[in-house]
Amino acid sequence: MKTFYVYILKCSDESYYTGLTSDLEKRFMQHQEGWFQNCFTFKRRPLKLVFYQEFSDFNEAMLFEKKIKGWSRIKKKTLIEARWEDLKILSKNYTEFGKPKDPSTSSG
């Protein structure tokens, strides 16, 4: 059975890149070595792999990748840090609850 990986890279400019691959080690090396000049990560090296999740179903992996790509930076950071309760807070509807702030920085 083939394994697919949804991954997040942290770039040298502190931005995040989310991708999908069936060979995580090879794909990370390609990003790090700059194999593709038109890739988002090319001018943002060096890179750090900060998150990945395995999937056995390509369609599930693709849907998860698309979902993460639509997330805010704060929400991606919360996923990377495995702050599951905070992730629930950040998933609430903006129109009902207002724009979320990073729960890890709130006081009191």
Automatic annotation (TrEMBL):
Species this protein is from: Moheibacter stercoris
PANTHER family: UPF0213 PROTEIN YHBQ
GIY-YIG domain span: 2-78
Protein name: Endonuclease
Superkingdom of the source species: Bacteria
Similarity comment: family membership: Belongs to the UPF0213 family.
InterPro entries in alphabetical order: GIY-YIG_endonuc, GIY-YIG_endonuc_sf, UPF0213_domain
Keywords of the record: Endonuclease, Hydrolase, Nuclease
Entry-linked SMART domains: GIYc
GO molecular function, one term: endonuclease activity
Pfam family, one: GIY-YIG
